[in-house]
Design brief:
Layout (H helix, E strand, L loop, with lengths): L3 E2 L8 E2 L1 E4 L3 E2 L2 H11 L4 H4 L1 H7 L11 H12 L3 H11 L5 E11 L8 E13 L5 E11 L4 E11 L4
Antiparallel strand pairs: 1-2, 3-6, 4-6, 5-8, 6-7, 7-8
Length: about 160
């Protein structure tokens, strides 16, 4: 995993670890199931006639809601996240995982059924809190098969000081 310095407000200031997920093709069933499970029963997500008559021409088919995309992005990275945390811990000693404390997301492009997605992740230390906890930023770039970024989101997790 590479280390490099970047100046950005969206993600870690120093990238300590990078990882790339496996790919996953999104289906209409995936999208509809998510919409029903979380109750997003709004016309843009459940009414195809509304979508065809009210949405821009380029957006007149079923599309994935942003919370679904963030969830998929986190899930795609799940098999590798402990390796990423281990790599970050080599630079800054970390204790135990205390929880996720924030998510900041920017949606860049729509995702439709049959789009294939993967995540490119950058991880680094955000800062230490006044109580000594360590905030780690995990920047997820969720990309389509074309290479276009669909969602750029930063998940901030809190780790205890080393035990």
């Amino acid at each position: 995993m590479a280390v490099s310095n970047v100046e950005t407000s969206n993600g870690p200031n120093e990238i300590i670890a990078r990882a790339t997920s496996h790919c996953r093709t999104i289906t209409e069933t995936d999208i509809v199931t998510f919409i029903n499970v979380v109750g997003l029963h709004e016309p843009p997500f459940i009414d195809m006639e509304y979508i065809k008559s009210s949405m821009p021409e380029s957006h007149q088919k079923r599309f994935a809601p942003a919370p679904f995309l963030i969830s998929v992005g986190m899930g795609l990275m799940a098999p590798k996240i402990m390796d990423v945390i281990t790599e970050v811990s080599k630079k800054e000693k970390l204790g135990i995982f205390m929880g996720m404390v924030g998510v900041e997301a920017r949606v860049k492009a729509p995702v439709y059924p049959n789009d294939t997605l993967h995540v490119e992740l950058e991880a680094g230390i955000k800062r230490k809190t006044s109580k000594g906890m360590i905030l780690v930023d995990l920047r997820h770039l969720l990309k389509k098969q074309t290479g276009a970024v669909t969602v750029d989101f930063v998940e901030t997790i809190m780790m205890s000081p080393p035990l």
